[in-house]
Amino acid sequence: MKGNSTSQRAGFTLVEIMIVVAIIGLLAAIAIPNFVSARARAQANACISNLKQIDSAANEFALERGKKTGDPISFPSDLTPYIKLNATSSIPPCPAGGNYTCEAVGAQPQCSLGNSVTPGHVLP
Question: When you count CB atoms within 10 A of the terminal residue's CB, does the N or C end of the chain come out lower?
């Protein structure tokens, strides 16, 4: 008779389930901020890479067209032939939703997000 009573007790108690749920919640509370921070760093790095490409394209444009420092640039139309375009045939956008500007030869291109986000979207 004792064999039947032990087979009915198989399973988890409410306390055991609550402990497992609490541990999972603790791990999620530790991991989620790290994922958010890693995403922000990745977006900033991609944006800075795009800014470097825009700066290089502006320098190539100036060299090929005989422009000097301070001459205006019609962004993005003047630089489009000098940058690898994305699938929509345009300059790759800021992954965080910012807008790029490049106003003159020799001036650093800028992202509209700049230092308003952490980490900043500015050329070093």
Answer: N
Three-state DSSP state, 24: helix
Question: What are 43-101's pLDDT values in tens digits?
Answer: 999 999 999 999 999 999 999 999 999 999 999 999 999 999 999 999 999 999 999 99
Nearest CA among 114, 69, 84, 80 for reference residue 96:
114
Which residue do the tokens 């760093």 mark? 41
β-sheet bridge partners, residue 72: 104
In a domain? residue 124 = no
Domain that holds residue 83: 13-111
What CA–CA distances, in Å, run from 51 to 104, 106, 111, 114? Answer: 14, 13, 8, 11
The pTM (predicted TM-score) of the whole model is 0.78
- Count other C-beta atoms under 10 Å from residue 83's C-beta: 19
Rounded distance, CA 44 to CA 114, Å?
A: 10
Residues 72 and 108 sit within 8 Å (Cβ to Cβ): no
